[in-house]
Description:
The structure holds two protein chains of two kinds. By secondary structure, chain A is mainly alpha-helical.
Amino acid sequence: MKPLLFLTGRSIVNGLRRALTSPKRLIATLVIGAYYFWIFGGRFLTAGGGGMPSRMRGFGATPQFSFPALSVIEAFAFSLFAAVSFFLVIGLFGYRASFKAADVDVLFPTPISPRIVLAFRMARDYLATLLVPLILIVVGFRSATTGLDLIFRNVPNPATAGYTIRAFSLGMLLLTLAWVTMGYALSLYLNRNDRRSDMRKRIIAWAIGISSALIGSYIYARALQIGSLDDFVSLTHSAWVRGFFFTATPASSITMGPLEGNLSEMLIGAGVLICISAVSILLSLRQAGWMYDQAAVRGFSSDTLRQLQRKGDMFGMVAESARAGRYKPKKAVWLQRIKTRGFGALIWKSALIQWRTVRILIFLFTLAALGMSLGPVFGLEKSKAVDAGYMVMGMQGFAIFMVATILSQNGFTELLRRVDLQKPLPFSPATIIAAEVLATAAPCIVVSLTASVVATLVLPAIWQHAFAAIIFGPSIAILICSAMCLITLLFPEIDDVAQRGFRGIITLLGVAVLGTPGLAVLIVAIVGANQPLLGAIPGALINLAMSAGVMIAASGLYAGFNPSE
Amino acid sequence: MLQTYGLVKEYKNTRAVAGLDLEIKPGEIVGLLGPNGAGKTTALRCIAGILRPTEGRIVINGSDLILEQAKAKAQLAFVPEVPSLYELLTVEEHLKFIAMCFGRLDLFEKLKDVLLERYDLDEKRNDLVATLSKGMRQKLSFACALVHDANVMLFDEPLIGVDPAGAHELKLEIVRAKNEGVAILISTHLLDTAERLCDRVIILARGKKIAEGTLSELQTISSMQGRSLEDVFLKMTEEPHEAPAVPNG
Lengths: 565, 249
């Protein structure tokens, strides 16, 4: 156990230290920390009574109510635990003990017993499962306590209030422990790398699926007849429901112990859950010999996918799915047939990758942009065509911003990843950056053109606005993409969480600063002369000039970028 | 020192290793050769205790790998092809972690400076593994294999990605270990290295052992006297392999 504690402890300390060593990471960490403090901190600091008007503090203003029967409380407690159990059942078949490649290469060949490794993993997973409720408790404990005090002041014996909350927490802890350990025992039994294991998995999945459907139908049928609290209590006491949610009954017994003054019921409930956990732990440990084999054979595709998902790296996710044999490219004959060379080849490559990875996203955003742009056209009266025109421009701008940021985030991550392949090609860094920016902005241009043309066809009176959008929209798309390219190259560590968060914040700031001059010219023309076209042309020129400057700066960074550093 | 008896490893639809018998004596270097997909890495991973054999036994210095796992593994060192190391440990911590796993902190204290210096890791001892180049990671992986006094060493393509000086040092280290009585199994595609370094080679194809012996024995089997291991290997692996040709003794 000592080496595993050493490994975990040092990894956490070194990870934190790493996050604070370089100025870039330090700034990024501080900004992210400040952001989260701003979001959650204020609430935490005022949690003492923030949620309640001052006149309500103390119990004077609390309405009196008759405390419900204990059977009703038990039914609610049971339902709550049953709901938690249901969510824990969903993850039951998932592969547990997800290991890293380093575990396979370094840890598995050592003489540390797989049972110790398994026990350590189970403890770690259990703590991780408790982390979310723990955060909620830390953030909202004081407010919650005030609320609970208000409720329990009406309990027949108010002294039991504190014990009930503790008993409820204990019930939740033991219930979660039972499911985590059962998850491991089943995972090790069902995820072995042979055909027999597949068969078992299918049988158990069908059994759980069928019984879930049956119990669901039963509950639904009974729920339709519920007319009073007594009916609800009766439903929760049904043998079928109790049998299916077999862990919720002992957990609710633990909770009800203090309220009912029945210590033995509480102890029996705790004993049942502890027994389930103990048997599951024993079964897991007996199968520990399979754990390494499962981890090594399964590979790390799902872990990698999860990490890529966290990063929002859609290109990487599709590539990973292809590596795992789960993705077959659809033919894009029209795109594949295009013959081009030089600069065009770079654009063609990006178009193919976009087609394979985010075409559905582009399609959906085009639809959304069309919907948002054309909504005003259909919604407003013809006499208000001018208003509709401006709304078309505004909505289109929003859609372009969304598409450009999503495509840039993915496209420029890919640019960093393929730097070793792309840099030796016979192009200057400026050419490569220009091609990447234009290729990334191209779908936005399609969105803008489509939305404007359709809007003009529907309401010809807004032709000037639509034309202005066609001119200004693509230029702002190119500006957003070039700004994001520069920011990605300034903070190029794809895997660094702090840099990733910082990049997001800086992007908003950067786009706002760079987009202001062009947008200001457009707004002046609109407000001063009601001539959007008059403002769109110089505004677009300013955007393009700004983009050129940003691309030159990005090219300099790209030329000096070394992925090994 | 290391024996496998009828080692089989099956995946759902594939038999990656099909009844591999091998024996490596103390102070012997055996090369495991074969085309891509022959089952070399799977065999090594089974012997390293990473993969669970579907059938067969693996015995390391008298200890069965399944029945006495800790005892068997305590005598084993494994250097994978592209080592995935714990990126958030420093170089020295990584070495210490391995020593802790093997319960040999005494050796770590004694050997750490020598090993770090020998593999050019001295200046990087406090750097995170995440910052190391591929070659440096390979060297660290090698240092980890030497920090716990193993009796059996398994190398999966140990020289890939290492600079010439590093490769030279690693080869010297392998020979040094052999001279100290360590049994060594090396999987490699570098046939000239195998020819110079190994006392014996085993050729695998489609999970089966198709030949085993010293270079001269293999030359005899393939009727290619005087030819290089590369020529012998190419001839053996391009022919259909119905029956294994293993010389006696």
